[in-house]
């Protein structure tokens, strides 16, 4: 379940290719962050049900948008709290 560059650019409403590298890096970072907050291993991530993957995709796109819009002043603590709330239904108690 990977968010594509084009999907992220559509979500961000970015039409130029000037920031493609930045957005791709944000996707990578957001995916890792969501996986960590949801407490899913790589194997669990790959074997997840569709409804869980949809929620995680939304969380990844939200994270990309947050980091894109707040490049200079991102509050990572607030972002993590928001992601915990978004992922509450799928978040594991521990690894």
Characterization of the model:
Helix 2 crosses helix 4 (50-69). This protein has 95 residues and is mostly helical. The mean pLDDT is 91. It has one domain. 66% of the residues lie in helices and 0% in strands. It is built from 5 helices and no strands.
Radius of gyration from CA coordinates: 13 Å
Distance from first to last alpha carbon:
20 Å
What fraction of residues sit in β-strands?
under 5%
Report the biggest beta sheet as strand number plus sense, adding barrel if it closes.
Answer: none
- Rough outline: globular
- Helix content percent band: 55-70%
Multimeric status of the protein: single chain
Number of helices: 5
**What is the average per-residue confidence, as pLDDT, rounded to a whole number?**
91
When the domains are counted, the total is 1
Class computed from helices, strands and strand pairing: mainly alpha
The poorly predicted ranges are: none
SSE succession: HHHHH
Instruction: Please provide the count of β strands.
Output: 0
